[in-house]
Design goal:
The chain is built from 21 helices and four strands. It is α+β, with helices and mostly antiparallel strands. It has a four-stranded mixed beta sheet with strand order 2-1-3-4, with helices on both faces.
């Protein structure tokens, strides 16, 4: 369960990677070929152009950075318009009665799960993660490995399958590297790239030692992304074990091997660790650092940040003071009525009724949405009554 919680925290962070889902432009048959080649699962968005929930997922879910980071790694993703010829052909094998219908398949195109209806970002992420974890390719490979097969291609696939199923591959990978003297530089680089999953491991040290040859094979961008991902996995371990030592190790490894991104990583790592473990002192300090150094030009992120802090109010009221500072930064950046209303409510929670009323009235002036105006008016009445 803690892993799912970490995923929600990890994938909710807007600072980690950089894009939404990269949908495959080829046909269904070509997607299956590509999935076999890349040893990935398949995700199909079966949609209709007139479907409202389909449009919302395309705009608000598929475009999210965290969604792209996960699905691009684990799936070949394909959008199929079910009212076009390819869609009608697809529906003969996989019938669709409502939109959107989300299909999750293995690399052969065999159905693993069919889900009808739109999903939120977090629902879609957890759904994809649960399916990827439940589909375990390692069984047949494990049998061959236990029989003594140490062929490079087999062990590489075995390690990759274990990692994709969220099973530990550390012993297999370390034993293989210790027992293999005849690997070519490219084979060693490829193996280390697939096997290294966390910064708190011997494999990370080997990866860094061979970094130059791995970059020659995989490219600098992928290597840097792999280092960052490994450090985030160590943050996951830190959260699981409530270990500040692992948190420090992950931040140290980033500063040593990806210095240009280490400061931002450190702020976000502290924040995610603090949220997961309800470490209020760290939560307040890291949130303020993020607001001042990362999100200072992003009013929407500032607004989200102050709302996240308020969820911990019942644990420690000090988060309300931090929320006020961040909410003020949001409205200074953009006097949006929603942000002004949030700021007003935080001011009221901090016993600043006059300032709260002023902010609420400004929110009403700025608002043009009738439902929003009604909410603000009701809040103003409450403030004037108290």
């Amino acid at each position: 369960m803690k892993y799912i919680i970490f995923l929600l925290l990890f994938f909710a962070s807007p600072f980690l990677f950089s894009q939404g889902i990269e949908f495959f432009e080829g046909t269904w048959e070509e997607a299956k070929v590509k999935a076999v080649e890349e040893e990935k699962l398949i995700f199909v968005d079966a949609y209709a152009t007139w479907c409202g929930p389909c449009k919302r997922m395309s705009k608000n879910v598929f475009t999210q950075e965290a969604v792209g980071d996960f699905y691009n790694k684990m799936y070949i993703s394909l959008k199929i318009d079910m009212e076009k010829p390819e869609g009608r052909a697809f529906s003969r094998e996989f019938p669709v009665s409502a939109y959107p219908t989300l299909f999750f398949m293995n690399e052969k195109g065999e159905l693993l799960k069919k889900v009808v209806g739109g999903k939120s970002e977090q629902q879609f992420l957890v759904l994809g993660q649960e399916i990827a974890e439940s589909y375990d390719r390692s069984g047949d490979l494990a049998i061959k490995y236990e029989e003594g097969n140490r062929d490079f291609d087999l062990v590489l696939k075995y390690v990759k399958a274990l990692n994709n199923a969220n099973k530990s591959s550390l012993k297999i990978a370390n034993d293989f590297l210790r027992g293999q003297q005849g690997l070519t530089p490219n084979q060693r680089a490829q193996f280390l790239f697939e096997a290294m999953v966390a910064a708190d491991s011997r494999l990370f040290s080997l990866f860094i030692k061979d970094r130059q040859s791995i970059e020659s094979l995989m490219g600098i961008d992928l290597v840097e992304e792999k280092i960052k991902e490994a450090c985030w996995n160590t943050i996951r371990n830190a959260i699981d074990f409530e270990s500040e030592a692992l948190l420090s190790e992950a931040k140290l490894k980033m500063s040593e091997h990806l210095k240009s991104q280490s400061e931002e990583f450190g702020y976000n790592a502290d924040y995610e660790f603090a949220k997961a473990n309800a470490n209020i002192e760290m939560l307040n300090s890291s949130a303020i650092l993020i607001a001042k150094n990362i999100a200072n030009d992003d009013a929407e992120r500032l607004h989200d940040l102050c709302n996240e802090l308020l969820q911990y109010r019942l644990i420690d009221n000090s988060v309300v003071q931090s929320s006020e500072k961040i909410a003020k930064m949001a409205v200074d950046k953009l006097d949006d009525p929603e942000y002004l209303l949030t700021y007003s409510k935080i001011l009221f929670a901090n016993n600043k009724s006059k300032k709260a009323l002023k902010s609420a009235k400004k929110a009403l002036e700025k608002s043009t949405n009738q439902q929003e105006r009604k909410e603000i008016e009701e809040w103003i009445i409450q403030l004037e009554t108290d």
